[in-house]
Design a protein that fits this description.
Blueprint (H helix, E strand, L loop, with lengths): L16 H25 L12 E2 L3 E3 L3 E3 L2 E8 L4 E6 L5 E4 L5 H14 L30 H22 L10 E3 L4 E11 L12 H7 L2 E9 L9 E7 L16 E3 L4 E5 H5 L4 H19 L4 H4 L4
């Protein structure tokens, strides 16, 4: 059973994108700034895993990052609404999370890093966004609604816990459960172990080279996405690459899951999960059945990739 985070009244809270979209746009950019610091500080890992953030007991974190003879870490504490920079070099530095512009957040964060004598240069504009205002110039996005942020974090914690259980049933190569700050989604990816055809790209505002490295090998991937202006419905998704023609016609669970021909993915509404009698069981059925659909239609060696029950 999920433990409810202080400030939230349900392990699967309501997430109405339109009611907090301005906050989403602000913290999306904040996580991009912090994620780009991790991208530069960490040694390279396949499929850009060195760039992601992780769910923690207080929010999202970079995890430990090497720097010279020590390490540092940056964590969004959404319980106390602060950003904490901890390190082996000095006392913690703390930044308040409140309605403030991306430019203001960016400026103070790098001032705090300088105070710790941490010198990390990043590409100071957002990725995977149509409007890429440089962080230092972005005074447009400046919203921060505390309860909405806590609700999203609580939802992410509940999703993370189910994803971790799902991940444990696979003994082949599998990603961590991690948060991609580019698209602002939580994801977990399984690999067949075989190389994939060269990806042809097509993802908006995503370099082709990044797409080709990310999909260098066959994958079955699932995730959670809180919505956007163009598609405000929070959803779970599942897709595979390459995607066999038969993948779209598989019987997946639960009954509320559906195939999107436009996106080439299976979807399940977050609201259907949170309103279910057993949200964890419903989400797990979606993860398991869509993985089986991709593995069977893609002729994966399931005998040697899955944990025997």
């Amino acid at each position: 059973m999920n433990t409810i985070i202080k400030g939230c009244d349900h392990a699967w809270p309501a997430l109405d994108y339109n009611s907090w979209k301005d906050t989403v746009k602000t913290i999306h950019q904040w996580t991009q700034i912090v994620g780009k610091i991790r991208l530069r500080a960490m040694p390279w890992q396949n499929h850009s895993w060195h760039a992601t953030l992780y769910i923690t007991a207080r929010g999202f974190s970079t995890g430990p990052m090497p720097y010279k003879d020590g390490i540092f870490e940056i964590e969004f504490d959404f319980e106390n609404h602060q950003l904490i920079i901890s390190s082996t070099f000095n006392q913690n530095e703390v930044i308040g999370l409140f309605p403030r512009s991306v430019a203001d957040f960016y400026r103070e964060l790098f001032q705090k890093l300088k105070a710790l004598k941490i010198d990390v240069a990043i590409h100071a504009s957002p990725n995977e966004l149509a409007e890429a205002i440089p962080f230092a110039e972005n005074t447009t996005n400046k919203s921060y609604h505390k309860q909405s942020v806590q609700d999203f974090w609580q939802a992410a914690v509940s999703v993370h816990n189910v994803f971790q259980k799902f991940r444990s049933g696979f003994i082949g190569k599998c990603s961590p459960v991690h948060f991609f700050w580019g698209a602002f989604d939580l994801a977990v990816t399984r690999f067949s172990g075989r190389k994939a055809p060269l990806h042809q790209g097509g993802m908006p505002n995503m370099p082709l080279s990044v797409m080709q490295e990310a999909y260098s090998h066959e994958v079955s991937s699932a995730g959670f996405w809180p919505g956007s202006d163009d598609s405000p419905m929070p959803v779970f998704y599942s897709y595979c690459y390459p995607s066999p023609a038969a993948f779209a016609n598989q019987k997946v669970q639960p009954a509320e899951a559906f195939w999107s021909p436009e996106m080439g993915e299976y979807f399940l509404k977050y609201d259907d999960v949170r309103q279910a009698k057993d949200p964890e069981a419903m989400l797990m059925s979606f993860l398991e059945s869509t993985y089986i659909a991709s593995a069977n239609t893609g002729n994966w060696d399931r005998e040697n990739l899955e944990l025997k029950k």
